[in-house]
Fold this protein.
Amino acid sequence: MQIAIVGLPYSGKTTFFQTLTETQLDQHTIQRHEANIATVKVQDKRLDEFTEIFQPKKKVNATIEIVDLVGVQKSEKAGSMFNTTFLTKVRTNDALIHVVRGFDDESVPHPEGSINVIRDIKLFEDEFLFADLAFVESRFEKIEREMGKQKSKEQALKEKEIMKKWNETLEKGIPLREREMHDEELLLAKNYQPLTAKPLLVAVNLDEKDISRAEEIAEAIRKDIKGKKIRIEPFFAKIEKELVTLEEEEKKMFMEEYGIKESALSRLIRSAYRLLGLQSFFTVGEDECRAWTIHEGDNAQVAAGTIHTDFFNKFIRAEVTHYEDFMKYKTFAKCKEHGVFRLEGKEYIVKDGDILHVRHG
């Protein structure tokens, strides 16, 4: 899974990436206008607790690949703000994190002349919507041209009907993520990667003076920016950048001083993880405690296959205990005594937080 970070210049986008990935980009790298890619751990207190109990040789977090895309480039076409290269790079990602500037700093001018979070969010949404409309219209024309050459027109007619529905949705100013898509639509969306169908996490970069009212600010934005597969989360780029440089004890003191209960970046990554419809199950023991990533609704056999393909092919049963039950009784033996340790077949739908031990042939 790959998530792209996008945003206007001077929004804190690259600082967000560097903090998130705990990397330092020199000025030369930033000025080369190249995309930077890093793998980020999904922090999970449940995995931390399992590690504390089992003291394993290895602890393995779930991960997400994060891409810091080159900054927005103006298009040569009248009426379009983003050029084709930028839009093409955005299109290849599974979800988007839009970093929006919510802080004022006279030494760093805003490219639009003023701080306006709602305007900046809608600016990106509108540009993506226009790009999708242009794609749908061109695809519609191509289908029309090719239909006369095809012996079987059934598939082309189906796609034409879907493009018509997409066009109607987009012309109303509604992003495609708002549509309830059936299987054929979902397949086309996967193939064509429309921008407005992508899950969107808006990360509002606030000033440290706004820490105490961060949630209040975010809630006000949520009233204007609503929809499926879209979340608004506040964060503080400057503070978060300082936090990653501190030792654990210093970090706790720093967070207490500012009244921060949890790193916003940890919360943002979990939020992005959920936006993608992902969840974690765990394998635990003295050798390794690991979080595994699956989609919501995946069954036990599919989950087993993420551990090893042989586990999918030779699946027999899964021994299952949920995180909350295990933390209540602390051992598998006691979980068995209390009836919360059970055997499940391949059709069992794995829940977020399940601990699995796969029996296989």
